[in-house]
Amino acid sequence: MRKGRIITSSIILVWLVLAFTPLVIGWEYYLTPFADRPFHPLHELYKPTGLVGHGLGIFGSLFIIIGVATYSTRKRIRFLQRWSKLKYWLHFHIFLCTLGPFWVLLHTTFKFSGLVAISFWSMMLVVASGVFGRYVYARIPKTLNGVFLDDEQIRNRYRTLKEELVAISGLSAEDIENTPMLLNPNRHFSIGQAVVTTIKLDMARFISDPLTRLLESYNLSGQEREEAHRLTRQLMLTSRQLAIKQPFQKIFGYWHVLHIPLTAVMFIILLVHVIVAVMFGYTWIL
């Protein structure tokens, strides 16, 4: 768990450094009014056709293309499924497909008009759709290889976690079941109810829940308390997965219908933008 957090933190740090280094260096230029930018010392570098500005657009677009292509290929080609877990490919996809649009945003120097505006806003729709899709996908129970679990598998895990928590903490099964943070696994949620409930529970994670406070009142050793807290978190997550699995799978299906065509439109507009730029002689350093 600790190693995973270190890796995640390192990836976030790399993303922030790559994303904000050109922004920080060109901060004064980006804040300069459009009419005055041609007279700014950084204009030749940071304008959309400049060495830095144009490079950000090119590499940002390449990152998006690579991020989409590698993840889509990993999901569809069978022999690639042996190459690492799907979640790592998804992390790589998210890394490139958020950094790329950010660099493209810097490439535009925050000036949108004509074809650039259409290209940019189509990209923003795809990014927003992707963020929502990631939120939904992360909350659907699945194996390490990305295969969705069925209800019986989740129920077995729920029972096992509850039995382990009872054994290590001394809590009764009734105490655990009556905790407000646990959802009734037999309750059926509509799509709207599932989304609202999930958001509320995600926000509540930052507040000490009743079950955790109840554990504090028991005389547990440090190791037992740590294990009990881990089981509590897993139990709460599993109860939520049972309750929202079906509506979230429906949302994910609807999301696919929207996200894939949006991505195709974005790439078509990007291709037109590149062709027009090359026709006008804007070929960067090539």
Global geometry: elongated
Distance between the termini: 45 Å
| Share of residues in helices | over 70%
DSSP summary: helix tally = 11
Largest sheet, in brief, is: none
pLDDT average, as an integer? Answer: 81
Our count of domains comes out at 2
Order of helices and strands, N to C? HHHHHHHHHHH
How many strands appear in the DSSP assignment? 0
In angstroms, what is the radius of gyration?
24 Å
Could you list the spans in which at least 5 consecutive residues all have pLDDT below 50?
none
User: β content, as a range?
Assistant: under 5%
Structural write-up:
There is one protein chain. The protein is elongated, with a radius of gyration of 24 Å. It has 286 residues and is an all-alpha fold. 73% of the residues lie in helices and 0% in strands. The protein has two domains: 2-146 and 255-279, no CATH class; 151-250, no CATH class.
Task: Give a quick set of tags describing it.
mainly alpha; 0% strand; 286 residues; single chain; 2 domains
State the gist of this model.
The protein is built from 11 helices and no strands. It has helices at 2-25, 27-31, 43-46, 51-76, 86-107, 114-138, 151-169, 173-177, 191-204, 210-216, 222-279.
Tell me the layout of helices and strands.
Layout lengths: L1 H24 L1 H5 L11 H4 L4 H26 L9 H22 L6 H25 L12 H19 L3 H5 L13 H14 L5 H7 L5 H58 L7
Helix pairs in contact: 1-5, 4-5, 5-6, 6-11, 7-11, 9-11, 10-11
